[in-house]
Specification:
The complex is a heterodimer. By secondary structure, chain A is mainly α. Chain A has one domain: Helix Hairpins (Orthogonal Bundle). In chain A, about 80% of the residues lie in helices and about 0% in strands. Chain A contains three helices and no strands. Chain A is elongated, with a radius of gyration of 21 Å. The termini of chain A are far apart. By secondary structure, chain B is an all-alpha fold. Chain B has two domains: about 90 residues; about 190 residues, no CATH class. Chain B is built from eleven helices and two strands, in the order H-H-H-H-H-H-H-E-H-H-H-H-E. Chain B has a two-stranded antiparallel sheet with strand order 1-2. The longest helix of chain B is centred in the last third of the chain and has 25 residues. Chain B starts with a helix and ends with a strand. Classes of the chains: A mainly alpha, B mainly alpha.
Chain lengths: ~110, ~300
Protein backbone atom coordinates (compact mmCIF):
# COMPACT_ATOMS: atom_id res chain seq x y z
CA UNK A 1 0.00 0.00 0.00
CA UNK A 2 1.23 3.48 -0.84
CA UNK A 3 1.80 6.15 1.83
CA UNK A 4 -1.29 8.22 0.88
CA UNK A 5 -3.56 5.16 1.08
CA UNK A 6 -2.22 4.11 4.50
CA UNK A 7 -2.51 7.63 5.87
CA UNK A 8 -5.97 8.07 4.34
CA UNK A 9 -7.20 4.95 6.13
CA UNK A 10 -5.49 6.22 9.29
CA UNK A 11 -7.36 9.53 8.90
CA UNK A 12 -10.63 7.60 8.61
CA UNK A 13 -9.78 5.55 11.73
CA UNK A 14 -8.81 8.65 13.75
CA UNK A 15 -12.04 10.39 12.70
CA UNK A 16 -14.02 7.37 13.88
CA UNK A 17 -12.19 7.32 17.24
CA UNK A 18 -12.89 11.04 17.56
CA UNK A 19 -16.62 10.65 16.87
CA UNK A 20 -16.95 7.74 19.28
CA UNK A 21 -15.09 9.66 22.02
CA UNK A 22 -17.15 12.78 21.36
CA UNK A 23 -20.36 10.81 21.92
CA UNK A 24 -19.45 8.67 24.91
CA UNK A 25 -16.88 10.97 26.60
CA UNK A 26 -17.43 10.82 30.35
CA UNK A 27 -16.36 14.38 31.09
CA UNK A 28 -15.96 17.67 29.21
CA UNK A 29 -12.20 17.19 28.86
CA UNK A 30 -12.72 13.80 27.16
CA UNK A 31 -15.16 15.31 24.66
CA UNK A 32 -12.81 18.25 23.98
CA UNK A 33 -9.91 15.86 23.36
CA UNK A 34 -12.09 13.73 21.08
CA UNK A 35 -13.15 16.82 19.13
CA UNK A 36 -9.49 17.59 18.46
CA UNK A 37 -8.72 13.97 17.50
CA UNK A 38 -11.59 14.13 15.02
CA UNK A 39 -10.14 17.34 13.57
CA UNK A 40 -6.72 15.71 13.16
CA UNK A 41 -8.28 12.78 11.30
CA UNK A 42 -10.28 14.96 8.92
CA UNK A 43 -7.22 17.12 8.19
CA UNK A 44 -5.24 13.97 7.45
CA UNK A 45 -7.77 12.83 4.83
CA UNK A 46 -7.42 16.28 3.31
CA UNK A 47 -3.62 15.88 3.39
CA UNK A 48 -3.97 12.68 1.38
CA UNK A 49 -5.92 14.60 -1.25
CA UNK A 50 -3.09 17.17 -1.27
CA UNK A 51 -0.40 14.48 -1.61
CA UNK A 52 -2.20 12.82 -4.49
CA UNK A 53 -2.41 16.20 -6.20
CA UNK A 54 1.38 16.48 -6.30
CA UNK A 55 2.58 18.02 -9.50
CA UNK A 56 4.30 20.94 -11.19
CA UNK A 57 7.39 20.30 -9.08
CA UNK A 58 5.52 20.39 -5.72
CA UNK A 59 5.46 17.36 -3.42
CA UNK A 60 1.81 18.03 -2.65
CA UNK A 61 -0.95 20.35 -3.87
CA UNK A 62 -0.33 23.59 -1.91
CA UNK A 63 -3.98 24.72 -1.86
CA UNK A 64 -5.34 21.98 0.47
CA UNK A 65 -2.18 22.37 2.59
CA UNK A 66 -2.92 26.05 3.13
CA UNK A 67 -6.54 25.22 4.00
CA UNK A 68 -5.41 22.65 6.58
CA UNK A 69 -3.07 25.21 8.21
CA UNK A 70 -6.04 27.58 8.45
CA UNK A 71 -8.15 24.76 9.87
CA UNK A 72 -5.63 23.84 12.58
CA UNK A 73 -5.52 27.43 13.84
CA UNK A 74 -9.32 27.73 13.80
CA UNK A 75 -9.64 24.42 15.70
CA UNK A 76 -7.28 25.82 18.34
CA UNK A 77 -9.40 28.99 18.66
CA UNK A 78 -12.52 26.87 19.15
CA UNK A 79 -10.78 24.74 21.78
CA UNK A 80 -9.53 27.77 23.72
CA UNK A 81 -13.02 29.30 23.67
CA UNK A 82 -14.56 25.99 24.78
CA UNK A 83 -12.15 25.71 27.74
CA UNK A 84 -12.92 29.29 28.80
CA UNK A 85 -16.68 28.64 28.54
CA UNK A 86 -16.43 25.43 30.58
CA UNK A 87 -14.40 27.15 33.31
CA UNK A 88 -16.95 29.95 33.53
CA UNK A 89 -19.75 27.38 33.68
CA UNK A 90 -17.99 25.58 36.53
CA UNK A 91 -17.54 28.91 38.35
CA UNK A 92 -21.22 29.76 38.03
CA UNK A 93 -22.19 26.29 39.19
CA UNK A 94 -19.98 26.67 42.26
CA UNK A 95 -21.51 30.06 42.98
CA UNK A 96 -25.03 28.66 42.66
CA UNK A 97 -24.21 25.87 45.11
CA UNK A 98 -22.67 28.19 47.72
CA UNK A 99 -25.06 29.75 50.27
CA UNK A 100 -26.14 33.21 49.19
CA UNK A 101 -24.58 35.91 51.42
CA UNK A 102 -27.19 38.64 50.91
CA UNK A 103 -30.81 38.51 49.72
CA UNK A 104 -30.27 41.26 47.10
CA UNK A 105 -29.93 40.36 43.40
CA UNK A 106 -31.38 37.35 41.68
CA UNK A 107 -29.16 35.09 39.60
CA UNK B 1 9.67 -0.25 2.10
CA UNK B 2 7.47 2.76 2.75
CA UNK B 3 5.00 0.56 4.62
CA UNK B 4 7.80 -0.27 7.06
CA UNK B 5 7.83 3.39 8.07
CA UNK B 6 4.13 4.18 7.64
CA UNK B 7 2.60 1.25 9.50
CA UNK B 8 4.37 1.91 12.85
CA UNK B 9 3.57 5.64 12.58
CA UNK B 10 -0.09 4.85 11.93
CA UNK B 11 -0.25 2.34 14.78
CA UNK B 12 1.35 4.78 17.24
CA UNK B 13 -1.12 7.48 16.13
CA UNK B 14 -4.07 5.15 16.78
CA UNK B 15 -2.62 4.04 20.12
CA UNK B 16 -2.15 7.59 21.47
CA UNK B 17 -5.57 8.60 20.10
CA UNK B 18 -7.22 5.74 22.00
CA UNK B 19 -5.23 6.64 25.11
CA UNK B 20 -6.41 10.24 24.82
CA UNK B 21 -10.12 9.31 24.77
CA UNK B 22 -9.93 6.37 27.18
CA UNK B 23 -10.70 7.22 30.79
CA UNK B 24 -8.23 7.70 33.59
CA UNK B 25 -5.90 10.43 34.73
CA UNK B 26 -6.65 13.75 33.02
CA UNK B 27 -2.95 14.69 32.71
CA UNK B 28 -2.13 11.35 31.06
CA UNK B 29 -4.92 11.89 28.55
CA UNK B 30 -3.68 15.38 27.62
CA UNK B 31 -0.09 14.11 27.43
CA UNK B 32 -1.29 11.42 25.00
CA UNK B 33 -3.02 14.13 22.98
CA UNK B 34 0.20 16.16 22.78
CA UNK B 35 2.03 13.03 21.61
CA UNK B 36 -0.74 12.63 19.02
CA UNK B 37 0.09 16.11 17.68
CA UNK B 38 3.75 15.17 17.42
CA UNK B 39 3.04 11.87 15.61
CA UNK B 40 0.68 13.66 13.22
CA UNK B 41 3.54 16.09 12.53
CA UNK B 42 5.75 13.20 11.40
CA UNK B 43 2.91 11.87 9.27
CA UNK B 44 2.52 15.26 7.60
CA UNK B 45 6.22 15.11 6.70
CA UNK B 46 5.55 11.67 5.14
CA UNK B 47 2.81 13.37 3.08
CA UNK B 48 5.36 15.92 1.78
CA UNK B 49 3.68 18.77 3.69
CA UNK B 50 6.34 20.21 6.04
CA UNK B 51 4.46 23.51 6.47
CA UNK B 52 1.44 21.65 7.84
CA UNK B 53 3.75 19.48 9.97
CA UNK B 54 5.21 22.58 11.66
CA UNK B 55 1.73 24.02 12.27
CA UNK B 56 0.38 20.73 13.62
CA UNK B 57 3.26 20.33 16.07
CA UNK B 58 3.32 23.98 17.19
CA UNK B 59 -0.41 24.78 17.28
CA UNK B 60 -2.27 21.45 17.08
CA UNK B 61 -0.14 19.60 19.63
CA UNK B 62 1.77 22.28 21.53
CA UNK B 63 -0.46 25.27 22.19
CA UNK B 64 -3.76 23.37 22.06
CA UNK B 65 -2.17 20.88 24.47
CA UNK B 66 -1.26 23.73 26.81
CA UNK B 67 -4.87 24.96 26.89
CA UNK B 68 -6.12 21.42 27.55
CA UNK B 69 -3.46 20.92 30.22
CA UNK B 70 -4.92 23.87 32.10
CA UNK B 71 -8.34 22.29 31.80
CA UNK B 72 -6.91 19.00 33.08
CA UNK B 73 -5.60 20.81 36.16
CA UNK B 74 -9.07 22.13 36.91
CA UNK B 75 -10.75 19.52 39.10
CA UNK B 76 -14.18 21.06 38.45
CA UNK B 77 -13.96 19.74 34.89
CA UNK B 78 -14.32 16.13 35.82
CA UNK B 79 -18.08 16.09 36.24
CA UNK B 80 -18.66 12.56 35.12
CA UNK B 81 -21.58 11.64 32.98
CA UNK B 82 -22.51 8.00 32.57
CA UNK B 83 -24.18 6.74 29.42
CA UNK B 84 -26.07 3.51 28.85
CA UNK B 85 -24.88 0.43 27.00
CA UNK B 86 -27.34 1.02 24.14
CA UNK B 87 -25.88 4.52 23.67
CA UNK B 88 -22.36 3.03 23.52
CA UNK B 89 -23.48 0.56 20.85
CA UNK B 90 -25.15 3.31 18.80
CA UNK B 91 -22.05 5.50 19.05
CA UNK B 92 -19.85 2.58 17.98
CA UNK B 93 -22.10 1.85 14.98
CA UNK B 94 -22.01 5.52 13.96
CA UNK B 95 -18.21 5.64 14.34
CA UNK B 96 -17.82 2.47 12.27
CA UNK B 97 -20.11 3.95 9.62
CA UNK B 98 -17.97 7.11 9.46
CA UNK B 99 -14.84 4.96 9.18
CA UNK B 100 -16.34 2.88 6.38
CA UNK B 101 -17.52 5.94 4.46
CA UNK B 102 -14.22 7.81 4.78
CA UNK B 103 -12.20 4.68 3.96
CA UNK B 104 -14.33 4.14 0.84
CA UNK B 105 -13.74 7.76 -0.18
CA UNK B 106 -9.97 7.36 0.32
CA UNK B 107 -9.84 4.10 -1.66
CA UNK B 108 -12.06 5.39 -4.48
CA UNK B 109 -10.43 8.80 -4.98
CA UNK B 110 -10.52 9.80 -8.67
CA UNK B 111 -7.58 8.99 -10.92
CA UNK B 112 -5.81 11.18 -12.00
CA UNK B 113 -6.15 13.26 -8.85
CA UNK B 114 -7.51 16.78 -9.36
CA UNK B 115 -4.90 19.39 -8.46
CA UNK B 116 -4.40 23.13 -8.38
CA UNK B 117 -0.62 22.70 -8.21
CA UNK B 118 -0.06 23.66 -11.91
CA UNK B 119 -1.99 26.93 -11.48
CA UNK B 120 0.02 27.75 -8.34
CA UNK B 121 3.29 26.94 -10.16
CA UNK B 122 2.29 29.19 -13.08
CA UNK B 123 1.39 32.17 -10.91
CA UNK B 124 3.93 31.86 -8.09
CA UNK B 125 6.77 33.75 -9.89
CA UNK B 126 4.58 36.88 -9.95
CA UNK B 127 4.59 36.93 -6.13
CA UNK B 128 8.39 36.63 -5.70
CA UNK B 129 7.71 33.89 -3.14
CA UNK B 130 9.44 30.52 -3.24
CA UNK B 131 7.15 28.63 -0.85
CA UNK B 132 3.92 27.71 -2.67
CA UNK B 133 1.97 27.27 0.59
CA UNK B 134 2.85 30.80 1.71
CA UNK B 135 1.85 31.98 -1.76
CA UNK B 136 -1.57 30.37 -1.37
CA UNK B 137 -2.01 31.69 2.18
CA UNK B 138 -0.95 35.28 1.60
CA UNK B 139 -1.81 35.84 -2.07
CA UNK B 140 -4.05 33.32 -3.87
CA UNK B 141 -6.35 32.55 -0.94
CA UNK B 142 -5.63 35.76 1.00
CA UNK B 143 -9.32 36.08 1.91
CA UNK B 144 -9.17 32.83 3.91
CA UNK B 145 -6.13 34.03 5.83
CA UNK B 146 -7.63 37.46 6.47
CA UNK B 147 -10.78 35.86 7.87
CA UNK B 148 -8.70 33.46 9.93
CA UNK B 149 -6.90 36.31 11.68
CA UNK B 150 -10.36 37.75 12.37
CA UNK B 151 -11.53 34.39 13.77
CA UNK B 152 -8.63 34.46 16.25
CA UNK B 153 -9.69 37.94 17.32
CA UNK B 154 -13.36 36.99 17.69
CA UNK B 155 -12.45 33.91 19.74
CA UNK B 156 -10.30 36.11 21.99
CA UNK B 157 -13.16 38.58 22.49
CA UNK B 158 -15.36 35.58 23.31
CA UNK B 159 -12.89 34.41 25.97
CA UNK B 160 -12.50 37.89 27.46
CA UNK B 161 -16.24 38.47 27.59
CA UNK B 162 -16.55 35.59 30.08
CA UNK B 163 -15.01 37.67 32.87
CA UNK B 164 -17.16 39.85 35.14
CA UNK B 165 -17.33 43.53 34.13
CA UNK B 166 -15.08 45.03 36.85
CA UNK B 167 -12.19 42.75 35.81
CA UNK B 168 -12.47 43.53 32.09
CA UNK B 169 -9.17 45.44 31.80
CA UNK B 170 -7.26 43.39 34.35
CA UNK B 171 -4.64 40.67 34.04
CA UNK B 172 -5.26 36.96 33.39
CA UNK B 173 -4.89 34.51 36.25
CA UNK B 174 -1.46 32.83 36.53
CA UNK B 175 -1.16 29.77 34.28
CA UNK B 176 0.10 27.67 37.16
CA UNK B 177 -0.87 28.03 40.82
CA UNK B 178 2.59 27.09 42.16
CA UNK B 179 5.40 29.68 42.24
CA UNK B 180 8.02 29.13 39.51
CA UNK B 181 10.91 26.88 40.48
CA UNK B 182 14.60 27.53 39.87
CA UNK B 183 14.65 24.95 37.10
CA UNK B 184 11.79 26.63 35.23
CA UNK B 185 13.46 30.01 35.65
CA UNK B 186 16.72 28.64 34.23
CA UNK B 187 14.92 26.88 31.36
CA UNK B 188 13.12 30.06 30.42
CA UNK B 189 16.32 32.15 30.52
CA UNK B 190 18.09 29.68 28.22
CA UNK B 191 15.24 28.76 25.86
CA UNK B 192 13.38 32.04 25.37
CA UNK B 193 16.14 33.98 23.54
CA UNK B 194 16.81 31.02 21.23
CA UNK B 195 13.09 30.41 20.75
CA UNK B 196 12.41 34.03 19.81
CA UNK B 197 15.15 33.74 17.20
CA UNK B 198 13.63 30.48 15.89
CA UNK B 199 10.18 32.09 15.71
CA UNK B 200 11.44 35.07 13.73
CA UNK B 201 13.47 32.77 11.48
CA UNK B 202 10.44 30.52 10.81
CA UNK B 203 8.38 33.55 9.83
CA UNK B 204 11.13 35.09 7.67
CA UNK B 205 12.20 31.86 5.97
CA UNK B 206 8.55 31.03 5.28
CA UNK B 207 8.70 33.07 2.09
CA UNK B 208 10.93 30.49 0.42
CA UNK B 209 11.14 27.35 2.54
CA UNK B 210 8.70 25.67 4.96
CA UNK B 211 7.56 28.05 7.69
CA UNK B 212 5.46 31.18 7.76
CA UNK B 213 3.39 33.56 9.82
CA UNK B 214 1.39 30.92 11.72
CA UNK B 215 4.32 28.69 12.60
CA UNK B 216 6.57 31.62 13.56
CA UNK B 217 3.75 33.30 15.49
CA UNK B 218 3.03 30.09 17.41
CA UNK B 219 6.69 29.75 18.48
CA UNK B 220 6.82 33.41 19.54
CA UNK B 221 3.60 32.95 21.54
CA UNK B 222 5.04 29.88 23.24
CA UNK B 223 8.16 31.84 24.24
CA UNK B 224 6.07 34.65 25.73
CA UNK B 225 4.06 32.06 27.69
CA UNK B 226 7.24 30.39 28.94
CA UNK B 227 8.61 33.74 30.12
CA UNK B 228 5.32 34.50 31.90
CA UNK B 229 5.14 31.05 33.52
CA UNK B 230 8.71 31.40 34.80
CA UNK B 231 7.89 34.78 36.27
CA UNK B 232 10.38 36.61 34.01
CA UNK B 233 7.61 38.95 32.94
CA UNK B 234 4.13 39.61 34.30
CA UNK B 235 1.01 38.55 32.45
CA UNK B 236 -0.06 41.61 30.45
CA UNK B 237 -2.94 43.84 31.52
CA UNK B 238 -5.56 43.22 28.86
CA UNK B 239 -6.57 46.88 28.67
CA UNK B 240 -3.10 47.94 27.48
CA UNK B 241 -3.07 50.11 24.37
CA UNK B 242 0.10 48.56 22.90
CA UNK B 243 -1.28 45.08 23.38
CA UNK B 244 -4.52 45.92 21.64
CA UNK B 245 -2.68 47.66 18.79
CA UNK B 246 -0.56 44.53 18.28
CA UNK B 247 -3.75 42.46 18.17
CA UNK B 248 -5.37 44.69 15.57
CA UNK B 249 -2.24 45.30 13.42
CA UNK B 250 -2.56 42.06 11.44
CA UNK B 251 -6.22 42.12 10.41
CA UNK B 252 -6.17 45.86 9.74
CA UNK B 253 -2.90 45.88 7.76
CA UNK B 254 -4.27 42.98 5.72
CA UNK B 255 -7.61 44.73 5.23
CA UNK B 256 -5.87 48.03 4.36
CA UNK B 257 -3.70 46.41 1.70
CA UNK B 258 -6.77 44.53 0.50
CA UNK B 259 -8.88 47.66 0.08
CA UNK B 260 -5.96 49.51 -1.53
CA UNK B 261 -5.93 46.65 -4.03
CA UNK B 262 -9.19 47.96 -5.47
CA UNK B 263 -7.56 51.26 -6.37
CA UNK B 264 -3.94 50.47 -7.26
CA UNK B 265 -4.37 46.89 -8.51
CA UNK B 266 -7.25 45.03 -10.10
CA UNK B 267 -9.25 43.66 -7.20
CA UNK B 268 -9.77 43.39 -3.46
CA UNK B 269 -6.67 41.76 -1.89
CA UNK B 270 -4.74 42.10 -5.15
CA UNK B 271 -1.16 43.34 -4.90
CA UNK B 272 0.11 45.96 -7.38
CA UNK B 273 3.01 44.94 -9.64
CA UNK B 274 6.51 46.05 -8.70
CA UNK B 275 6.01 46.36 -4.95
CA UNK B 276 4.35 42.97 -4.47
CA UNK B 277 7.10 41.48 -2.31
CA UNK B 278 7.49 44.46 0.09
CA UNK B 279 3.73 44.59 0.58
CA UNK B 280 3.57 40.85 1.23
CA UNK B 281 6.35 41.17 3.82
CA UNK B 282 4.59 44.11 5.50
CA UNK B 283 1.35 42.13 5.74
CA UNK B 284 3.22 39.09 7.03
CA UNK B 285 5.04 41.06 9.73
CA UNK B 286 1.74 42.50 10.93
CA UNK B 287 -0.16 39.21 10.96
CA UNK B 288 2.73 37.35 12.60
CA UNK B 289 2.69 39.87 15.46
CA UNK B 290 -1.10 39.66 15.80
CA UNK B 291 -1.12 35.86 15.63
CA UNK B 292 1.60 35.59 18.29
CA UNK B 293 -0.22 37.94 20.67
CA UNK B 294 -3.65 36.39 20.01
CA UNK B 295 -2.43 32.81 20.51
CA UNK B 296 -0.66 33.70 23.78
CA UNK B 297 -3.70 35.60 25.10
CA UNK B 298 -6.07 32.76 24.17
CA UNK B 299 -3.94 30.45 26.31
CA UNK B 300 -3.79 32.94 29.21
CA UNK B 301 -7.58 33.16 29.27
CA UNK B 302 -9.99 35.79 30.57
CA UNK B 303 -8.88 38.62 32.88
CA UNK B 304 -9.18 37.53 36.50
CA UNK B 305 -8.12 40.50 38.56
CA UNK B 306 -5.00 42.45 39.58
CA UNK B 307 -6.11 45.49 37.64
CA UNK B 308 -3.36 47.36 35.77
Amino acid sequence: MSTPTVMGLLGAALSAIGIYGLMVGRDALARLLAFNLLGGGVFLVFGVVARRGAGAGFGADPVPQALVITGIVVAFSATALAVALLRRLAELREKARAPRPAPEGEA
Amino acid sequence: MSLLLDAPLALVAIAVAIRAVAGGDAFARVAAFMAYGLVLGFIWVRLAAPDVALTEIAVGGGITGLVLLQAAGDARFSRERGVGLLYHVCAAILALGVFAALAAVVLLLPEPAPSLAPQVATNLPATDLGNPVTGVLIVFRALDTLLETVVLLVALIGVWSLSPDPLWRGRPAPLWPAPPSGALDFLARVVVPVGVLVGIYLFWAGADVPGGAFQGGAVLAAMALLAIMAGLMPAPALGGRRLRLALLAGPFAFLGVGIAGWFVADAFLDYPDGITKPLIIAVEVAITASIAVALALLVLGPPAGRKA
